[in-house]
Amino acid sequence: MATHRSTYPRGVTSLGLGSVLGASTNVVFSHVAQAVNPFVVTLCMVTVSAIVFGIVNRGRRPLLNRDTWRAAIGLNVASAGAYVCLVVGLKYLEPAVGTALQAGAAPLMTILVTGLLARRFTAGPAEWCGGAVILAGSGLLMWVSFTGRSALGNADTGGTAIGVAAVLVSGLAMVFLTLCAKRLTQLGWSNSAVLAHRFYFTIACCTGLSIGVDANWSALVDSAGYLLPFCVIGSGVLLLLQIGIRNVAPFVVMAMTNLNSLLTYLLQLFDSRLHLSLSTLYGIAVVLAGLLWIVITQRRGPRHPPG
After folding, report:
1. Distance between CA 269 and CA 295 in Å, rounded?
2. By three-state DSSP, how is residue 221 classified?
3. Nearest-CA neighbor of 88 among 96, 78, 98?
4. Which InterPro entries match (predicted)?
5. Phi and psi of 59, rounded to 5°?
6. What pLDDT does residue 104 have?
7. pLDDT for position 198
8. Most buried of the four, 37, 92, 139, 213, by CB within 10 Å?
9. Exposed, middle or buried, 225 (CB in 10 Å: 0-12/13-18/19+)?
10. How confident is the model at residue 13 (pLDDT cuts 50, 70, 90)?
């Protein structure tokens, strides 16, 4: 319990700062994905991160055995699902809605996934209550998107459906990503090792999906001046998220990522293609109410036996 109290503030602070920076990257990637194929945007993002953390981790070989191989492979597959699907979702949805839906379903997904893996559900009333409130807010945001009340205005129903499905899959992938990254840290991997070896499958998938598509390279070149710096910022977001994963429970990590939605909402006001949507803000407020409940109730550590 003493260890939990000493590491919890560090983990929550890292996740909060990561949310601030992550919100800015979400808005930029969403804007670029309107003109550039989302698979190409994702490829640029993860390639920069792979280079950055490859340099940071150079000369350090992580522990390799059966358990670490399994967790590393799971981490790579989950990373591909999380980032590819998120950028696809941001192409069709208001950025704040996309990030809120991705993170909103994650707490309950975490409860279900960890319960199924452990063959028993250990979540207490606080977790279920907070997750249910976040899920209610997510449902409100889906309604906002399908009825044309989001910052995009009247949206294509088919495109909205693709966007909603993509970000929900991304949220589920984030659950597995968090669990696999947590497992690797428990097996002795450093933060830099986890980050340096997580993008192989994502790069392979994005490269394959980018072949033969209209990438609109001229638009990519035009946006490179601000896209590249935000790809580097994205690397910082990943580091802060990894620090959070190391220091707090997976459920709290998934809940804290919901901060992205409010910050993204504020930053997207600078995007001229979007207008102010109070309906989106109401949905985000419900999501954040569930988030605050979870963070406060988890402050002193879980009230149930660890899974």
Report:
1. 27
2. helix
3. 98
4. EamA_dom, EmrE-like
5. 80, -5
6. 76
7. 92
8. 92
9. exposed
10. confident
CA distances to 3, 182, 248, 304 from 300, rounded to whole Å, are 11, 20, 11, 12
Q: Number of helices (H) and strands (E), helices first, in the chain?
A: 13, 0
User: What does the pLDDT average to over 294-303?
Assistant: 63
**Residue 93, amino acid:** L
| pLDDT(305) > 50 | no
- Which positions ≥6 away from 121 have C-beta within 8 Å? 111, 115
Report the candidate in 202, 169, 183 with the shortest Cα–Cα distance to residue 53: 202
Residue 234 near residue 45 (C-beta atoms within 8 A): yes
* DSSP-based three-state secondary structure for 58: coil
pLDDT digits (tens, 9 = 90+) for 102-129: 877 777 787 788 778 777 777 778 778 8
Question: Do 167 and 81 form a contact (C-beta atoms < 8 A)?
Answer: no
Each residue's pLDDT tens digit, 53-107: 989 888 788 888 999 999 999 999 999 999 899 888 888 888 888 888 887 777 7
